Each structure stands twice: as C-alpha cells, then as structure tokens.
Amino acid sequence: xxxxxxxxxxxxxxxxxxxxxxxxxxxxxxxxxxxxxxxxxxxxxxxxxxxxxxxxxxxxxxxxxxxxxxxxxxxxxxxxxxxxxxxxxxxxxxxxxxxxxxxxxxxxxxxxxxxxxxxxxxxxxxxxxxxxxxxxxxxxxxxxxxxxxxxxxxxxxxxxxxxxxxxxxxxxxxxxxxxxxxxxxxxxxxxxxxxxxxxxxxxxxxxxxxxxxxxxxxxxxxxxxxxxxxxxxxxxxxxxxxxxxxxxxxxxxxxxxxxxxxxxxxxxxxxxxxxxxxxxxxxxxxxxxxxxxxxxxxxxxxxxxxxxxxxxxxxxxxxxxxxxxxxxxxxxxxxxxxxxxxxxxxxxxxxxxxxxxxxxxxxxxxxxxxxxxxxxxxxxxxxxxxxxxxxxxxxxxxxxxxxxxxxxxxxxxxxxxxxxxxxxxxxxxxxxxxxxxxxxxxxxxxxxxxxxxxxxxxxxxxxxxxxxxxxxxxxxxxxxxxxxxxxxxxxxxxxxxxxxxxxxxxxxxxxxxxxxxxxxxxxxxxxxxxxxxxxxxxxxxxxxxxxxxxxxxxxxxxxxxxxxxxxxxxxxxxxxxxxxxxxxxxxxxxxxxxxxxxxxxxxxxxxxxxxxxxxxxxxxxxxxxxxxxxxxxxxxxxxxxxxxxxxxxxxxxxxxxxxxxxxxxxxxxxxxxxxxxxxxxxxxxxxxxxxxxxxxxx
Length: 698
Known about the structure:
Number of domains: 4
Radius of gyration: 31 Å
Strand order of the largest sheet: 2-3-6-4
Number of strands: 15
Strand content: 5-15%
Number of helices: 23
Helix content: 55-70%
Structural class: alpha+beta
Oligomer: single chain
Distance between the termini: 52 Å
Largest sheet: 4 strands, mixed
Shape: globular
C-alpha cells in the first residue's frame, strides 16, 4: 500500500521571495546577454582589424600584432562563454557509498520518507564523517534545462547523536526541499545561483591560459593586459548583479528552510526535529573537540580507534559538565540552555544568512501544532547492520590523509577518556566559578587599595546565576553597541532594526548608541564591584589561614601580563599585515624592498621568542615540536626571496615561528589567569576544593 503524500500550502512570504529571486536572475541574465553581445562585437572588430593589419604589410611584426589584436577580443569572449562547458562535480573522495543490500533497514526508512513526501529516491546514498546530512547534485550550465539527479549524504557524526525519529525528521527536511511543485522553483533558483557563483569565481584554468599566452611574446602581453582590464570591468558589473541575486536567493533559502521544516513535521511531528536542532551545536562541538584532540596527537603518531565512540563520550561528558540532562542516552538541550549566554536585545534580519536561527526555526515548528504520535527514541546507530565496523572504516578513511613521522598507534578508548578529561581540566576553570570567568577577566584594580571585607560574603552569591548573567549581558551589550555604531556611521547599511522590542530607523541610532553606552558603563561598574568583593572574599581566607600576600601578587602578575599582552599581540598582527603582499602579485623589486623593510621587525620577533623560551611560565606549553621550530628559526637569518622566486621552505619556517609565538602568547594569558583562579579555590576548605575542582573527573 502506497503511503499518502504530504501536501503543504506554500506561504505568501515564500512566494514573494521566489518572485524576487527569479526577477533578480532574469535581470542578471539580461545584463550577461548584453555584455556577451558587446564582447562578440569586440571580437569581430579585433579579428577583422588583425586581418587588415596583416594584409596591409605582411611581416613578422604586423603578423604578431595582428594575432595579438585578434586574441584581445577572443580572450574577452572566451571569459564569458567558457562556463557553459564546465561541470562542477561534488568531491566524493571523502564519501563512502552504501547500498540497500548493505544497509536494508536504513534504506527502508529512506523509502518511507520519499513516499510520504512525494519525491524520488536518491540516485546514490553516501556516508560521511560529518555532523550533517544533505541532498546534493552536480551542477553545470546544462543542468538548468535537464533533470537533476539527487544524491543523499548522511554523516555518521550526525547519526551518532540522534534517535531514529530525529534522523527520520532530519532526512525528511532534506527531501522536503524537493517535494512540492513550488519547491522545485526554489531548487532551480539554487542551481542557477551556483552557476552564477562559478561564473564569477572559477577562473583558475582561464588565468593559466591567459598567462601562458602572454608569455609567448612581449607583443602579446600588451593585448593580454588590455583584455585583463576589460575583464576586470566585466567582473565588477557581474559582482554587482550577483550581490542582488544572492541577497534575494538567501531570502528565498531561509523560507525554503521553514518550508522543509514543516514538511518534516508532517512526517514525524515537530518534536524530533526540534530536539535534534537544540542538540546540534553540542554534537558539532563534541565532534570538533575530538578532531582538535587528535590534531595535537599527530606529532606523537597517535590516531583514534573509533572517532564516533570518542564523540559520544565527549558529548555526554560536556553535557554533564554543563548540567544538561541525559535522557534515552542522548543529551536533552533546552531552549534556555541554547540561549544561556546570548543576552542581546538587538534584532536584525540578517539578509545574508542562508538559514534562519535555530530559535526562529523552533518557533515556526511549534506553530505547526503537528505533534509526534509514535516517537522512536532508540539511537539511530541501531539502523545500521554493523555500526561499529562502519564507524571504524570511516575513522580510518578520515585519518588517511595525515602524514605521520613514525609507526601509527591507535589510542585505546580508555586511554582516550583519561587524556580527554585531563586536557579538559587543563583548559577550563574550576566549576565553582559557574562560567563567570570563561569569557571575562578580572577588571583591573589596585589590590593594595581594596579594603578588608566589611560584610559577610557568600561564595555562592559571588558567582550566582544573576552575576554570571550580568557578565554576559555586558558582553552582549558591547556587541550590540558595536553593531549599532556600524549602523550609525552607515558601515552596516540598514534601514531599520529592533532593539528591546522597539523599532528604530538608521537616523535614530545615535541617541540609542549613547543610551547603550551609559547602560554598559553602569553594568561594568557593577561587575567591577563584584570583582572587588571576590578579591575581598578570598583575601580574607588567605589572611586567616596563610598570612601572606600570594593572592595580591598573583593579581598584580595577571594585570601586568594583560597590559603587556595587547602590545605584544599587536606586534604580531603588524608583522602579519606587513607580510600580506606575499598573497598577491607583486613586482620583484617591491618584494625585495618589503622584506628589507621588515628586517627590524623580524629581529624584534626573534628577541620576543628568546624571552618566551627563557620564561618559566611558558615551559609547560613549549613542547618538543614548538621548541624545535623556534630553534630552527633562531638558528640563522633566513632569506625569503631569491632571483624572482619565493623560498617557500624558509617562509614556512617564518610563519610557523610566528604562529607558535601567537599561540604561546594566548596560552600564557590563559595559564596565568588559571593559576590565579586555582589559587583562590585552594584558599577555601578542602571539601569544597575537592568537590568543585575535581567534579570534572566524575
């Protein structure tokens, strides 16, 4: 019995955005056709002029000039038509194709979805390592007119973090993009948008051809130069048009997401997709934290046995650390937890966003009122015949591209758990602080001018939810001020925006800006008062138990480092900017002058690195690889350009040293802050110390 197809009424906003997108594409195509016609006329004139020049006086110079003149028009015309013949196929080297015979239960689920939605079964189904699922297809000029066959990609990093019902909802969303007649218009618009993007940006082969032609003769170079200037003008026009097209397409894309969500809700109810959306950030963060973990193990020739089992552990571990409830063996992230640290009151419709916010998607999903009837909370991994074998296969594939210096060791899971916990503790502050210091530093004050505690202060009050919220309100307010400032000076072009439920026009942004700056000043003053109370609290413990000035000294050390950090890091930024010319075509004499100009800056860098190597507080983080990189860089004065060629190996030595320097500066900032915060906790009774600091180990 065939499943009844889903039918959803398309919203008026979707219809409006579709019309805008199509209109902008028509405008683009008309502009493109006009330029194509002009290029054709130019080509005819150049070829005719070249023939006349050669016919007038046949000799070497006129023949070369005639061919060069003809090539001018041909190069411009070729630039505009070459994309018709290009095909852009998705890179599938990272994908593993699966069949119904290999995974029958999964294919049954997909078949059920496509029948319910009323779309076609994908041509091929692939697995990837990603925390994602997608329907994709190859695009070319001719795909505008020919049927496009879809392929389905399912990321094991996603499967690993959702239930069966949630995976069904996610796949329903993906196929929902192609389900309705009106949605096919959206698919067509998407494809055209991709083609236009490729037309503007895929020029690597063309650039090589034009460069080879210019190298044939100095005479040809003149005409190539003229054609390049004409093409630059064409690109400018096309980019202006593309800006209009893309903005309208993105507006349509957001409506397509809402529509596809509604399609998914008709298949599974809205709850499965809602729960998966809320968990997605945690799932993605967990996966990336595992990738980062093994990136740091490359020098030790260590890789994962099963990166997805590692991901599961990391997700559950981080959920527990953030007091997120585990239910049905999956973290249940709430809407409150999702927006825990976002206290912004500024609402701007982002016209360049391809997806609506998670909050907006959930709001629209709930408005459907389509409740789930039979939720299957079993893990989606159970759909696979041999999930662990498949996970190991894709794990090995993920690590294939990494070059190790010795025999590779697969880290046992138990060893991974211990190392992950250890690194987490090394890179986080004690839990007792409740996230108060995660994104802020103690505000600078003079410890000697702070009086003794005059009131009874409780630890829980200092780091209460209210005080943590105050910190993140200040951060959000600072970000809001920067955005409103950009609106005020027209850097950010915007007609209107909402702030705290009130609509403002661009001209009203300056008075609002002053108001927000006053609010921020008051908020910072409250935070500073709390910071002083924190110092008083821990200082009273130190005076009582260990009469010394260690706490005061640690605060001074941190404040001193903070003052020095800005200038040291700005120095790194300046050097990076001074070397930016390497990324562009630069005359040889200018290259030599540029390198000569940074010699003194580079000497300063070497002195800074020597100081880092001698500073005891950086020793724990200067591993064997970093030390060897520094020693190699300091061993001689490197030359970065010779003749007309960059010395790539020497440049790599320079940039590695610079990056390691920036890493250690930031790491030093963290370590000195952690030393201060850890010492404060040691002043409290041992019971609190063990419970709060070591809770991460449980």
